[in-house]
Amino acid sequence: MIHCSAVLFDLDGTLLDTAPDMGAALNTLLRECGQAPLAAERIRPRVSHGSTGLLDLGFPDADAVEVERLRARFLDLYAASLAVYTRPFDGIERVLHALEASGLRWGVVTNKPGWLTDPLLERLDLARRSGCVVSGDTVAERKPHPLPLLHAARMLGLEARDCVYVGDAERDIVAGRAAGMRTVVANYGYVDVDEDTAAWGADHAVAYPLELLELIVRPTRPA
Question: What does 101-117 look like in DSSP terms, one character per residue?
Answer without folding.
Answer: HTT-EEEEE-SS-HHHH
